[in-house]
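debug: dumping io for the single-chain case to check the tokenizer round-trip. Nothing else runs in this session.
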Amino acid sequence: MAQQAADQLPARDRRRGRRHRHRRPAPARGASGEIGYGIHPDRWGRGAATAAARELLRQAFEEHYLHRVYGTCDPRNSASARVLLKIGMAYEGRMRETVRIRDGWRDSDLYAILEQEWRAR
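debug: decoded output
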């Protein structure tokens, strides 16, 4: 049985006796990514969102080698907007009617930071 499975491998794999393994893809250097967070209301106003967002940025730039990271929030959510500004993101504008919620479409404010801006902080 094992020999039959081995015979089905390409010749180069049989010679080396290697098995097919799933490898983690290399980081997409230069790509962009999005961060998001949800904090329980009991933890609001205690720095939890800021700490989480800072850690997400650290991982994005140091572990995933991203070039640009963005985040969005509801324009009515001034606390989340403050978090995004506090971690160094710049306000880039309002995207109109991007999310449909129970009572209709909602706009989203867009914030972003580039790797070189994050490293300069």
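debug: round-trip ok. The CA atoms of residues 6 and 52 lie 48 Å apart.
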